[in-house]
Design a protein that fits this description.
72 residues, mainly alpha, 2 helices, elongated
């Protein structure tokens, strides 16, 4: 029974901390752009390197027989 004298204030304190964190997140606009976070994973941040027009063209490689470039 004496354990409740410690557990109830601890539970109320943890609830108050959780409520304060939630109110802080609302005030700092953490929930404003919900769709942006969901769509951000679909786009690659690393842009592929592009060849300069003055550089050498890429070497042609032969595709194996039956590859997508062979008429069939």
């Amino acid at each position: 029974m004496s354990g409740l004298l410690y557990l109830i204030p601890v539970a109320i304190g943890l609830g108050a901390i959780g409520l304060a964190a939630f109110l802080w997140s609302l005030k700092s606009a953490q929930f404003e752009d919900l769709d942006g976070a969901a769509n951000r994973i679909l786009f690659d941040d690393d842009a592929p390197e592009r060849r300069n027009a003055t550089s050498d063209p890429p070497e042609k490689t032969q595709s194996p027989p039956g590859g997508p470039h062979e008429p069939g």
